Fold this protein.
Amino acid sequence: MENLISISTLNDFIFCPYSIYLHNVYMETDETLYHATPQARGKVAHETVDKKTYSTRKVDLVSLPVFSESLGVMGKIDLLHINKKTLVERKYQLKQIFRGQLYQLWAQYFCLLEMGYEVEHIAFYEISTNKTIPVNLPTQAEYIELQVFIERFKNYNPDTEIATNQNKCTHCIYCNLCDKTQLDNVYT
Ligand code: SF4
């Protein structure tokens, strides 16, 4: 099986492809070196799921590892309500839904279908407001959009010139470790 891309990195790749390269370089190091407040909060949001304490109902599947050979991705879903055929991704806060976050949810959905699960609804759950936000199932055109995006991800070359963006860089957890900018991030 070819190398599978982690679903959790799809959104980061849109934010800045170079951050994925830095993530891979620094992933073995002490996380406190680069983990900033928003990411730490997001991590906590997923902790109950990862520890499988979010739901004990037998009709729920929590923190299930998933993969899709056809898309070339792997990851973990937060929650699948089997009886409601509903896939749910938890986020601490969702002021707006970014394309990359949709890609993550779509990728999880296609993984589940490929693994033989029935899914008819997908949604985000915002922890800070205790709100469920339903999302349309991806269309065929959106499936192709996701495929094209994943191909771009797979073929990314970190030596490619990137146009840095001050606002992005100062909000990037790798800013202080990144050789593409002299800026410091706002979390230090
Ligand atoms: S600091 Fe800027 S260029 Fe470097 S990884 Fe982050 S967003 Fe990309």
